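Translate sequence into structure tokens.
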Amino acid sequence: MSDKCLIDPERDCYGLIKANELEKDIEALEDDLNSLRKQNSGTHERLFDRLNELERKEGIQGEQYKHIMEKLTQLATDMAEIKARPARRWEGIVEQVIGIVVAAVVGFMLARLGI
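Result follows.
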């Protein structure tokens, strides 16, 4: 096809010239777009790798948290037992004192009765 105008063959066809320029611009844009797609693909791959790493670390942290909570629960139980020991000792002493007082009163009453 000629670059000359169909109506006036002595003049250049400006529409054809512009169409050719637009085709070149479109090809350049397509090249840029393909380059951007490659860049984005690499970026997306790095992002997905990072997300996978974060999810893996979150799983590890979850297990560590679970282990820590189990230890804290065990420690709380142990602390409750340690706190209860003096109370149990005191209760034992009080029981013995009450037993001695009751025995003394019963012994006194039996002695008064002459038995």
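Note: The chain has one helix and no strands.
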